[in-house]
Write a structure and sequence with these properties.
Length: 180
């Protein structure tokens, strides 16, 4: 664990203010859920809560199924990072989403684009090798919880209406699974 050197007092209602610098670094926004853990040494550990994290194994199986059916690598993410990836994108698990992708998802807008389009969104801050993307936000009980992405590395293989419907359907299904 890394010490920050910041000390805060607990107020009369038992609250602690998480410093702005830490909230910015961890991308914690107002109203974001935070999990609280304790260990055997009496330490209290706060971690940003990801409801999608509870469905990680299910999301992995669903992404593998999308990959087999569509032939396109599939990725499933929570609001900040990828939970699973398939094909050449397995290594994306744990990587952060690009700020532009986060913003697009916050607006709850799907995106279907090729690299030449002005509205093409890199899915990570590093430049990827893919040329086409289909992205749909996952909404659960009115809240954004993540997104489903299909990508295509081959410049000649275009994505169309089928891929759009696949990611929209997958996002809707995963959102409904989380409601149960």
């Amino acid at each position: 664990m890394k010490a920050t050197g910041i000390v805060r007092r607990i107020d009369d209602l038992g609250r602690i203010v998480i410093p702005k610098e830490i909230r910015r670094t961890l991308r914690i926004r107002e109203a974001d859920p935070v999990e609280i853990f304790t260990d055997k040494d009496g330490q209290v550990i706060l971690r940003k809560y990801s409801p999608m994290g509870e469905l990680k194994e299910f999301a992995r199986q669903y992404a593998e199924s999308l990959y087999r059916v569509s032939g396109h690598p599939a990725l499933i993410a929570d609001r900040e990072s990828f939970l699973v990836g398939t094909g050449n994108y397995r290594s994306y698990a744990g990587k952060r989403l690009s700020h532009r992708l986060e913003e697009k998802c916050i607006k709850r807008e799907p995106c279907f684009a090729t690299r030449e389009d002005s509205y093409f969104i890199p899915i990570t801050e590093e430049e990827g090798d893919y040329f086409h993307e289909a992205i749909a936000p996952i909404i659960c009980q009115g809240d954004l919880v993540g997104c489903v992405i299909l990508v295509e590395d081959d410049k000649r293989t275009k994505m169309g209406e089928v891929e759009q419907k696949l990611v929209l359907s997958a996002a809707d299904f995963l959102g409904r699974q989380m409601e149960e």
